[in-house]
Amino acid sequence: LAVHIQTSRALMVISLLLGFFGIIVSVVGMKCTKVGEEDPVTKSRIAVAGGVLFILSGVCTLAAVSLYATQVTYEFFRESTVPVNARYEFGSALFIGWGAASLTVLGGSLLCCSCPPKERRGQQYYRQSQPSTAREYV
């Protein structure tokens, strides 16, 4: 196969692996799971690490799809003996790839926003129980 197809294939495999590990790390970093640390700051940092993996996965997908689209564009406008109606064009897979890459980067960015602000790091707020009122026994 051509070099750009092999490169796109390798980038997509890397993207799939990064996305898989991003899912695992993000599930561990969610506040609703009991896996791992109980500290909310540590959980937030794990969730941010999952978000970074998702962003890297989206960038790899975007690079692979854009590399293939660049090659298609180059081949389309190149002078050749192939008639215009027999040349490759953008297909729906390219648009789906761009959409998937955009949503993956957006989701990773939202996970990266789950890090607590600096002034609240290390502080945990506990709900204080209300003092019980005196009961009258009759």
From TrEMBL:
What GO cellular-component annotations does this UniProt entry give? bicellular tight junction; plasma membrane
Localization, UniProt: Cell junction, Tight junction; Cell membrane
UniProt entry keywords in alphabetical sequence: Cell junction, Cell membrane, Membrane, Tight junction, Transmembrane, Transmembrane helix
The record's annotation in Gene3D superfamilies points to: 1.20.140.150
Keyword Cell membrane in the entry? The reply is yes
The membrane-topology field of this record reads:
Multi-pass membrane protein
Q: Which GO terms describe its molecular function?
A: structural molecule activity
Q: Name one Pfam family in it.
A: PMP22_Claudin
What InterPro entries is this protein classified in? Claudin (IPR006187), PMP22/EMP/MP20/Claudin (IPR004031)
The family this protein is said to belong to = Belongs to the claudin family.
Protein name per UniProt: CLD19 protein
Annotated organism of origin: Glareola pratincola
The coding gene here is Cldn19_1
